[in-house]
Amino acid sequence: MDAPTPKPTQQAPSKAQRPQRVIALMNQKGGVGKTTTTVNLAAAFARAGRSTLVVDLDPQAHATLHLGVDPSEVHMGVYNALVDTSIEPASTVRRVRDNLAIMPAVTDLAGVETELASMPDRQRRLEKALHALADRYEFVLLDCPPSLGLLTINGLCAAREVIIPMQAHYLAMQGVGKLLETIQLVTANINADLKVLGVVLCMHDNASTHTREVVQEVEGFFKQARGMDVPWKHARVVRPPVRRNIKLAEAPSYGQTIFEYAPNASGSEDYNAIAWSLLGEWDAMLAQQEEAEVVVPARKMAGNGPGNGPSNGPGKPGQGADGGLATNGVVAGAGGVAAP
Ligand SMILES: Nc1ncnc2c1ncn2[C@@H]1O[C@H](COP(=O)(O)OP(=O)(O)OP(=O)(O)O)[C@@H](O)[C@H]1O
Ligand SMILES: [Mg+2]
Questions:
Q1: Do 162 and 152 meet the contact criterion of CB atoms below 8 Å apart?
Q2: Superfamily (CATH H level) for 18-284
Q3: Contact, 161 vs 23, CB < 8 A?
Q4: Helix, strand, or coil (residue 219)
Q5: How far is the CA of 2 from the centre of ligand 1 (A)?
Q6: Is the pLDDT score of 3 beyond 80?
Q7: Axis-axis angle for helices 209-224, 170-189 (nearest 10)
Q8: Which atom of ligand 1 is nearest to 146's Cα?
Q9: Cβ–Cβ < 8 Å for 54, 63
Q10: Which atom of ligand 1 is least distant from the CA of 145?
Q11: Residue 240 preceded by cis peptide, ω within 30
Q12: Distance from the CA of 310 to the center of ligand 2, in angstroms?
């Protein structure tokens, strides 16, 4: 039996009206579940009929391999999109499943940070490439490497949201504190629109007391940030946690997602449930925004006149009056790119 596809809770607006939602999956700690979460969440969105792009920003090329693409045979990918601004970004992307495409890591990606270092706009290359693809993909998931170099910075510049995959261990939590500081630096200097969506707990073992204590601590930390002027003020621990499941570790060696390799495994259930909840919130937020855009022109016709409505006006999906409404921790205003 095939795993059930996630069902958004509300009728989604048509693709033409949906802005691009760019999410970076980031944690400078290695082996925490970034790639597994990127690939399987992307696959769940694609199975729900949402046009989705995975960008493999990691020279290890694990997301590329996970989706069944051999990096040694890739001639166009992230490297080309970042280094050669004259090429068409669409030529760096390949379709791998229904509704699912990848901008793969190529073998040269390891040297890209050195090459980019002397180039103008070196932090915003990915942002520009994704902007050119905004009409094609509703969801763009960025699999970041376990480091804070220029590849990750390009990811953080291009994204509107960050998901932090982590394991609920004491030391991992300390690492997340450092990561949040980095994100705050990025918001202060290069991408003011960046928000932390939350933490996805990977390889989770709910039976351990230590794990439960760490989760409580992370939740308490996010709760304290409500109302503060920090990029994680809407962040949360995303539910459900992804349980430890050997099928998730086996699937990449077959170049398959968990939904293809083991549709009945707990890994399939958990990633599907996360996708379902994120899609439901996203659709609810878009519907709310659409409603507001219908109401505003009606008010204008009733005599309020231009200037009293939102400055962005109707017809700019993804941007609220303040360019970034937040609903249930989901950041709106993902209509493409941050202001330069
Ligand atoms: N829920 C899970 N249950 C069991 N194994 C898992 C689970 N999630 C991930 N793994 C395995 O743990 C290892 C690390 O996961 P993954 O590659 O996703 O981490 P990563 O953060 O992307 O690593 P890196 O920092 O090297 O890029 C992989 O072998 C993966 O298959
Ligand atoms: Mg990885």
A1: no
A2: P-loop containing nucleotide triphosphate hydrolases (3.40.50.300)
A3: yes
A4: helix
A5: 23
A6: no
A7: 20
A8: 25
A9: yes
A10: 27
A11: yes
A12: 41
Q: Radius of gyration (Cα) for the chain, nearest Å?
A: 19
Query: Residue 190's closest CA among 182, 201, 178, 198?
Result: 182
315: Cβ contacts below 8 Å, ≥ 6 apart: 293
Q: Of 143-157, 172-186, 245-259, 309-323, which range is least confident? A: 309-323
- Spacing, Cα 111 to ligand 2 middle (Å): 18
pLDDT tens digit sequence for 184-233: 999 999 999 999 999 999 999 988 999 999 999 999 999 999 999 999 99
**Ligand 1 atom closest to 270 (CA):** 1
* pTM assigned to the model: 0.85
The string of DSSP letters for 115-131 reads HHHTSTTTTSHHHHHHH
Residue bearing the CA closest to ligand 1, atom 14: 31
> Which has the closest alpha carbon to 52: 6, 95, 8, 4?
95
Q: Which ligand is nearest to the CA of 31?
A: 1
Q: Which ligand is nearest to the CA of 246?
A: 1
Nearest-CA residue for atom 5 of ligand 1: 249
Ligand 1 pocket: which of 28, 35, 57 to mutate (most atoms within 8 A of CB): 35
Cα of 284 vs centre of ligand 2, distance in Å, is: 31
Kindly give the interhelix angle for 125-132 and 150-158, rounded to the nearest 10 degrees.
Answer: 40
Confidence of residue 145 (pLDDT cuts 50, 70, 90): very high
pLDDT of residue 143: 98
Look up residue 193 and give its two tokens: 């629109």
Residue owning the nearest CA to atom 29 of ligand 1: 249
For ligand 1, the distance from its centroid to the CA atom of residue 74, given in whole angstroms, is 23
DSSP assignment, residue 339? Answer: -
Residues with CB under 5 A from ligand 2 (ion): 34-35, 62
Q: Do the Cβ atoms of 324 and 337 come closer than 8 Å?
A: no
Q: Can you tell me the distance from the alpha carbon of 45 to that of 312, in angstroms, rounded to the nearest whole number? A: 29
Q: Above pLDDT 70, what percent of the chain?
A: 82
Assess whether the C-beta atom of 146 lies below 6 angstroms from ligand 1: yes
